[in-house]
Amino acid sequence: MTKFVPCPVALALALAFVQPAFTQQATDQAGPAPLGKLVDVGGRKLHLYCTGNGSPAVILEAGAGSFSVDWALAQPEIAKTTLVCSYDRAGYGWSDPGPQWDTVEQVARDLETALKKAGEHPPYVLVGPSMGGLFTRWYQYKHPDQVVGMVLVDTYETTAPVNGKQVPLYTLTKDQLQANLPPPSSLKKPPIPTEVHPPFDKLPQNLQKTHLWLERHFFETLDFNKGPEMMESWRAAFSVLHQASLKENSLAGLPLIILTRENINEDERAQQKRFLHLSRNARQTIAVHSGHFIQLERPDLVVDASRMFWLSGQQGASCSDGGGPTEDGRLEHSVL
């Protein structure tokens, strides 16, 4: 398994395998206005930004330390075809913090509640980048009747350090995990970022400033004491999903598209290929000329994947229509 460092603001308690950027000064209290609406999910509000019309609706999750604005290059194009919603998880962006931090249970419950309260309805296509892939997979696992397709955008199965070696979370017991997590008080607090770094410089200029403000605000309100509970939730969820994945076609033919960055090592390549076994209707696309943030560096691939699901619903096409195996065994991107 490979350690991922998703971005300069990656979560400190994706613990000991990413580096945080913790604020050491306050941001301006006013801040930028939310792009969407704030939806009550039970005494607190979640930011949900929906555009376009059509079905199935495309739901854009965010990765670790990322926000709804990071979909700014893909969402407008998807909205030309169907309804698409990006949102901020509790404690991110314009969303209020929740009682927990990024537990799969809270994330799934919040998302379902926010969509219902906003008047949006299944079927959904879920798009999960990076760490967001866990939340999309868990939502589908809990609500298979609501989900008609998934796109995993350079996602992965998280590891934890045990005896100096990174091991998959699903191989650990709860006690083993907690024994190997550094206490929240021991986590270092690097200086706050003062400028936008690639690939977030691909965002429109006004949203670059918004991203930086949201990044700073996120770490001001972050409570590292919630980290161990989050990690246990991830461990338990990965364990359940791993057990389910041992059965070939565990997603029962659910259309699944896997977008993978171009330069990956053999461990990463093997893990991405294992996702292909989740569904007999799975396809992998290599995002040429892209790093980890495919939604910013090759947003066209995310848009094409979402359009394919819409066409499937309109024409009865399968995920792999038009594609064929390449020499290395992956499926081609030429499906439209």
Write the layout of secondary structure elements.
Blueprint: E1 37-40, E2 45-51, E3 57-60, H1 75-78, E4 84-87, H2 104-117, E5 124-129, H3 132-142, E6 147-153, E7 159-162, E8 165-168, H4 174-180, H5 205-221, H6 227-245, E9 256-261, H7 266-275, E10 282-287, H8 294-297, H9 299-315
Parallel strand pairs: 3-4, 3-5, 5-6, 6-9, 9-10
Antiparallel strand pairs: 1-2, 2-4, 7-8
Helix pairs in contact: 3-6
Question: How would you describe what is shown here?
Answer:
- The protein has helices at residues 75-78, 104-117, 132-142, 174-180, 205-221, 227-245, 266-275, 294-297, 299-315, and strands spanning 37-40, 45-51, 57-60, 84-87, 124-129, 147-153, 159-162, 165-168, 256-261, 282-287.
- It has 336 residues and is α/β, with parallel strands linked by helices.
- The chain has one domain (37-315): Alpha/Beta hydrolase fold, catalytic domain (Rossmann fold, 3-Layer(aba) Sandwich).
- The radius of gyration is 19 Å and the shape is globular.
- The model is unreliable at 1-28 and 320-336 (pLDDT under 50).
The run of helices and strands is EEEHEHEHEEEHHHEHEHH
CATH A-level architecture: 3-Layer(aba) Sandwich
Q: Main beta sheet: strand number and arrangement?
A: 8 strands, mixed
Tell me the number of strands.
10
Widest beta sheet: strand line-up: 1-2-4-3-5-6-9-10
Q: What is the CATH topology?
A: Rossmann fold
> What is the highest CATH level, the class?
Alpha Beta
For the termini, the CA-CA separation is 33 Å
**What is the radius of gyration?**
19 Å
Average of per-residue pLDDT values: 85
Which secondary-structure class do the elements indicate?
alpha/beta
**Which descriptor suits the 3D outline?**
globular
- What is the CATH homology-level superfamily? Alpha/Beta hydrolase fold, catalytic domain
* Helix proportion range: 25-40%
Low-confidence stretches: 1-28, 320-336
| Whole-number tally of structural domains | 1
Strand content: 15-25%
User: Which oligomeric state applies?
Assistant: single chain
